[in-house]
Amino acid sequence: MSARRRPIGDTLLVVDGVSLSFGxxxxxxxxxxxxxxxxxxxxxxxxxxxxxxxLNCINGFYHPSAGAITFRGVKRAQxxxxxxxxxxxxxxxxxxxxxxxxxxxxxxxxxxLLKMKVGLAGQAVHLGPARAEELAHRxxxxxxxxxxxxxxxxxxxxxxxxxxxxKRVELGRALAAEPTLLLLDEPMAGMxxxxxxxxxxxxLDVNDEFGTTICLIEHDMGVVMDISxxxxxxxxxxxxxxxxxxxxxxxxxxxxxxxxxAH
Amino acid sequence: MLYxxxxxxxxxxxEDQQIFPIRQDRIAVALIVAVALVAVPLLASDYLYTAIxxxxxxxxxxAIGLNILVGYCGQIxxxxxxxxxxGAYAAYNLCLRIEWLPLPIAILLAGLIAALAGILFGIxxxxxxGFYLAVATLAAQFFIDWxxxxxxxxxxxxxxxxxxxxxxxxxGWIVDTPMEKYLFTLIVVALFALVAKNLVRxxxxxxxxxxxxxxxxxEIIGIRPLTAKLSAFAVSSFFVGVAGALWGxxxxxxxxxxxxxxxxxxQLLFMIIIGGLGSILGCFLGAAFIMIVPxxxxxxxxxxGIPLSTASISHMEAMIFGVMIVFFLIVEPHGFARLWSLxxxxxxxxxxxx
Lengths: 263, 354
Known about the structure:
The structure holds two protein chains of two kinds. In chain A, 38% of the residues lie in helices and 24% in strands. By secondary structure, chain A is α/β, with parallel strands linked by helices. Chain A has ten helices and ten strands. Chain A has helices at residues 51-58, 81-87, 104-110, 120-125, 129-148, 163-176, 193-210, 221-227, 245-250, 252-259; strands at residues 11-22, 25-36, 40-44, 66-71, 74-75, 89-92, 181-185, 213-217, 230-235, 238-243. In chain A, helix 7 (193-210) links the parallel strand 7 (181-185) and strand 8. In chain A, helix 3 (104-110) packs parallel to helix 6 (163-176) and helix 5 crosses helix 6. By secondary structure, chain B is mainly α. Chain B has a single domain (49-349), classed as ABC transporter involved in vitamin B12 uptake, BtuC. Chain B has helices spanning 13-16, 23-43, 46-72, 80-97, 103-122, 130-150, 178-201, 203-213, 215-220, 225-252, 262-275, 280-304, 310-331, 335-349, and strands at 163-164, 168-170, 173-175, 254-255. In chain B, the strands form two sheets. Chain B has a two-stranded antiparallel sheet with strand order 1-4. In chain B, strands 2-3 form a two-stranded antiparallel ribbon. In chain B, strand 2 and strand 3 form a beta hairpin. Classes of the chains: A alpha/beta, B mainly alpha. The A-B interface holds A 59, 80-82, 84-86, 90-91, 93, 97-102, 106, 109-111, 113-114, 116, 118, 120, 123-126, 130-131, 134-135, 138-139, 142, 173-174, 177 and B 12-14, 17, 195, 198-199, 201-204, 206-207, 209-210, 212-214, 216-224, 231, 235, 278.
């Protein structure tokens, strides 16, 4: 990988001994790892290993039954997803979670809601500050639209867009919030080779240009090995390996988890 | 002039974000405003004002309020009639008890009181959705009906419970004749429609639509469902409350308990469903359809010289009207506003659609 503008820095988020169970099912058991500033961390593992549950814990959808998550040095109590958003954590979903009735532009603009401050009365008049704010954020969103190359569909309701573009719009909405930490849940699921290449390029560019820390879940091993700085491997809710792609690739436990083991 | 946007270049985001970005649309709107402000007052009869135009405008405003809640925020409400009643009775009591209060201020305050009622009855929406929420708002309707019919204070202890609205004094302008009433209503409704449009195209509107389309994803990007839903209930009820005050003061003049019954709630819901959920224009189209079609149907047999009794005409009116509603919902479930935008799409590329 070419030299990056922003070297990997200090620890941004620490997952410390997190466990999560739904009734009798243990989704996560004593998982610990950390995410460092400006890095791309991949979480991999077979289906049902607890990858999405891990992301859901990080952004407040699930509350771990044990363990703690520390973000930017602050150990968090139970919190709601919108609080995670306010702290600078954005994410995309495995099954696209866009606002289908709204246009591409409006979807991306929703990503900037937290940054818009003008009150209700100002918006009702839509002159002066409200209008200036709206236009400033529009300009920012247009930069994201340019970056993701979706100019042609900015006024199209996203429900009508093909799958690959919807994935891009969802990434755009997450980027619009200018997140510190971006969680991507299978950003390349169901894409063909070219779409995957595009998406890889976007992810690397986001990381490089904006310095956004990225934590992603992906099944395509080629992609994972190519773009991530470090990899965390989960199986049955436990962490079985962690390290650079090369280290993980050579790890016997990982090979066993993916290829099975002779009994 | 053809309906084209070719050659109309937009060089700034401000130009692109106008309410009517296409020049032909702006011309059409200017024409409509001119007709409503100049031509109608020159030509219309008192019957047209009092039986059609004024109720049409006021119900359009109420429909806008309901559409904010149902069409934009995705929360269903069957309590619209009740919130109209809150607006009407609040305006009455404000005028009665604070004599120096100017009427427009009283109407706005009445809207705010209705907004508080809306927030109160919107609280269940934080827990329940869809049909269950509809039932909860139905409770609001019946409770408010009961409140104003049974608690004498609200009607100033009049024995019959009926209320006579005070004279309409708008900062010295005595709104008296049907034409004046029409103009006053027109101005109020136009201003509020503009406000509604500004709200739904801005930050708060996107917040509502995000909650409507996918509440989980909305929460992920930092929207608090509590504030989003309750603000929709508040703003919606504010509009509905203002419409209720106008309905009582301008249209009815005097009204009985239960003037704002459950039928009004259903009528408004039909208006926005037929007009188009999530569209301000749709509110006007839906209100026009629900108001005017029955009147037209009523005239048809007489105009064609078909001898029918009044009773059978009114029965047929109800039947044909019902069939039309069902037909429209099957053909275009997104309402007139959607039909209109499809027609515009077609026009833009006509006559070479490829």
